[in-house]
Amino acid sequence: MWPDMRFCELLGLDHPVIQAPMAGTSGPALAAAVSNAGGLGSLGCATLPPQRLRDEMRALAERTNRPVNLNFFCHAEPKMDADRHAALMDALAPHYAASGVAPPEGAPSAPFAPFGAAHLDYLLEQPPAVASFHFGLPDAAAIAALKGRGCRILSSATTVAEARWLAERGADAIIAQGWEAGGHRGVFLDPAHDAQIGLFALLPQVVDAVDVPVIAAGGVADGRGIAAAFALGAAGVQIGTAFLTAPEATPKPHHANAARAGTDDSTRISSAVSGRPARAHRTPWLDAMARVEPAPFPLMYHYTAPLQAADADRHHFSLYGQTAALAPEGPAEVRFRLLIEDAARAMT
Amino acid sequence: MWPDMRFCELLGLDHPVIQAPMAGTSGPALAAAVSNAGGLGSLGCATLPPQRLRDEMRALAERTNRPVNLNFFCHAEPKMDADRHAALMDALAPHYAASGVAPPEGAPSAPFAPFGAAHLDYLLEQPPAVASFHFGLPDAAAIAALKGRGCRILSSATTVAEARWLAERGADAIIAQGWEAGGHRGVFLDPAHDAQIGLFALLPQVVDAVDVPVIAAGGVADGRGIAAAFALGAAGVQIGTAFLTAPEATPKPHHANAARAGTDDSTRISSAVSGRPARAHRTPWLDAMARVEPAPFPLMYHYTAPLQAADADRHHFSLYGQTAALAPEGPAEVRFRLLIEDAARAMT
To answer: Is A278 an interface residue toward B (CB < 8 Å)?
Structure first.
C-alpha cells in the first residue's frame, strides 16, 4: 500500500510509521507496542539518568525484538553568566512569590547532559536499529562508530539548510519537522532565527534537497495526514501527539488532560520553560513568560522546575502538537492499526 | 480528475484552483488569464481608490466572461490615540534619520477604507461570480444583498473557530489559510493571539468542522501540494505566490526580485509595516521593527510608507509565502496548466 518503500526497506519495517520519541512521556511499553505492531517504536532517552537509561533499554529489549529507535539530544553544553542569572531571578521573583515557592538556590545546573561518551558506550554495547538525534548530530567519530555497529542514524530538520547539513554528515533518513509539531523544535543551525516553516511547505522542499528518505513530522495524526505526507514526497511519517494519550504512554496528569482537551488553537511555541522553543499547551503563565529572556537549554529548567513542582495547575508544561484533536483512541496497538487502516483508505 | 467537485460545481469552474487576490500585485491581466484557463482569477480590490476599482472591474470584464472573484478587506475602522502616535514617532525617528527621510506630518490617516457602502454599490451594479473577504465578513445586510444578486461569498479562516463563524454567517466556501501563506494573515476573531496554525493541521480540522467546501491556502505551489490538499479534505486550493512572478502580475521590482529569490526560510511574519501580521521577505529592517508596537491596520502605513518610498532597498515589504521556490515559470496561463498537469500526475 505504500507508494514509497525506501524507509520500510532501510529498517525492515511493515509500515513506515515512527512513534515519536517524547522524552519523559514515551517509555518501553509504548515503544514496544508500536514496534510489535510493525512500526518503529521510540524511546526518548535524552533526559534519562544513566541507570534509568540502562533499565529502560533492558525493559524494551524484553518486550520486543523488532527494530527500535533510541533518541538523544545534541544541544551545546550550556553556559550561563552571573548577570543573566541575576536578571532571571529578578524576572521570576513575582512568579515564585505568587505560588509561595522558594526561589532555587545556588548556581544553575543542567538536569541532563547532551549526548556524550557514556551514551555512546551504552549504544555500542546493545546497538538499536536506529539511533536518532534532536538539535543536530554527535561528532563524526560517534556517527562512524554507531554505523559500524549497524545503527541507522536519523535526525530532525526544520529547514532545507538543516536537512542538507544532516545528509552531508551521514544521516540515513531525515525527519522534516513542521511548525505544527508538539514538543521541542529541532532547530539547530540558527536557533535565534527560527524560520517557523509549516510542514506543508517544508516537506516537499526537503524532499527536493536530499537523496535520503524524508520522514514527515508535525501535524500528522490521522490517515488523511499520512496520505498527504506521501503526496508531498515523504517516505514515512513520525507521529507523537496521537500516541501521547495512549495508556502505555507516561505523561504527567496535567499533560495528559491538556492533550486530551487539545484543539487546533490551544498551543503556542515557548522557550520560557526549557530555554529552547517547544510547542506546549497555551497557559496564562506561558503567555506572561514570553517577556522573559530564558537561560540556555536546558539550564532554564533550574528556574522553572520549582514552579512546576509546587503549583502544576498554573505551571504545567504540556507538550503536544496542533492536531491533538484528530488523535485516535484506545491502546497504542489499536491506535497504530487505526492509523494504518485510515491511511490505506485515504490513499486508494 | 478531482476527487471533490463541490467547489467546481458551485461556480462552474473547470478546475478548483483560485489565483489568490494579492492586493496591489494582482490585476485584470493576471485574473483574466487564470479565469480563461478554467480556474478562478481574483482581483485584490481592497486597496484601490474608487475610480481605479471601476477601471479594473471594467478591464477585467473586457478580458474574460468566466467567473471572477473580487476581494475586499473587512478590518475595523482604525482608531489611534495621541500617546501611541508620539511613541511611534519616537520609535521610528532613528529609521527616518538613517534614510534621510522627513518624518510624516500630521495625524495618521488610513490609505484605504474597509469594505463599505460604496464598494457594495459597485458590486451590486456588476455582480462578480464571487465576492471574497479578508479579516471577516461585511454585515448581514450586505451579504444578503450580494447573495440576492447571485454572488457567492468566500472568506479566510486561520482557526476552526473562525471557520465556524464564517459558515454560520453564510460563507459559501471557506479558505483555510495556513501559517505558510504569504501576505496578510486573515486572523480576525482574536488577532492579539494568533494561533499560527500550519496548513497541515488547520485544513483537516476545518473540513471536519464545517459543511461548506474548504479551500486550502498557504504553501500550495505545485502539483504535490494540490494533491496533498485534496488528501487532507480540501475541495479546492488558493495559490498566490506561484503567480506572483508571472509577467501578468504587477509587483514592485523589489517585491518581484525577493519572491524570485525566495527560499523555505527567507520570510517572516511581521505586523510592523501595516499593523497586521503578514508574511514577507525577511529583512534586517523587519527584524529591527519587531520591537515596535505598531499602529492599528492600516494606519501603520502612514509611518512606514515614507521609508519605503525613499529607500526601498532597505524598507521594501515584499509579501510572499514559504513555497516561493516551488513556483513554476512562464506566463500565468502556462503556470496554471503546469499546476493542473502536475496535480493530475500526483493524484494518480
So the answer is: no
Q: How many CA atoms lie within 13 A of B215 on its CB side?
A: 28
CB pairs under 8 A between A and B: 133
Same domain, B29 and B123: yes
Instruction: Please check the confidence at residue A289 and state whether its pLDDT lies above 90.
Output: yes
State the total domains in chain B: 2
Per-residue buried b or exposed e for B249-260, using 16+ beta carbons within 10 Å of the residue's own CB = bbbeebbbebbe
Task: Tell me, yes or no, whether A28 and A170 share the same domain.
Answer: yes
B-facing residues of A in 199-228 (CB < 8 A) are 199-202, 204-205, 218-220, 222, 224-225, 227-228
- Domain of A129, CATH number, reads 3.20.20.70
Q: Is position B329 within any domain?
A: yes
A158 and A282: one domain?
A: no
Q: Is residue B52 domain-shared with residue B128, that is, in the same domain? A: yes
Nearest to A231 among B198, B231, B264 (CB): B231
A137 assigned to some structural domain: yes
B231/A233 CB distance under 8 A: no
- Examine residue B258 and state whether it is found in any structural domain, yes or no: no
pTM of the model: 0.98
Q: What is the pLDDT of residue B50?
A: 85
Q: Are residues B45 and B175 in the same domain?
A: yes
Instruction: Answer yes or no: is A258 within a domain.
Output: no
Between the CA atoms of A101, A105, A111 and A113, what dihedral angle is there, to the nearest 10 degrees?
A: 160
pLDDT band at B136 (very low <50, low <70, confident <90, very high): very high
Q: Which residues contact A338 (CB under 8 A, 6 or more apart)?
A: A328, A330
Q: Give the three cell numbers for residue B214.
A: 474548504
Shared domain for B103 and B235, answered yes or no, is no
In terms of domains, do A214 and A337 share one?
yes
Q: What is the pLDDT of residues A258-270, one digit of tens each?
A: 999 999 999 999 9
For the segment B255-273, the average pLDDT, to the nearest whole number, is 97
* Predicted confidence (pLDDT) per residue in B175-223, tens digit: 999 999 999 999 999 998 999 999 999 999 999 999 999 999 999 999 9
Same domain, A192 and A238: yes
Q: Which of A222, A228, A264 sits opposite B202 (nearest CB)?
A: A264
Q: Look up the domain containing A272 and give its range.
A: 78-111+263-319
- By Cβ distance, the residue of B159, B224, B322 closest to A265 is B159
Question: ipTM of the predicted structure?
Answer: 0.97
Candidates B320, B328, B338, B329; CA nearest to B218 is: B320
Q: What is the signed CA dihedral for B117, B122, B126, B129, rounded to 10 degrees?
A: -60
Q: Each residue of A220-265: pLDDT tens digit?
A: 999 999 999 999 999 999 999 999 999 999 999 999 999 999 999 9
Cell of B136: 471577516
- Determine contact, residues A198/A187, Cβ cutoff 8 Å: no
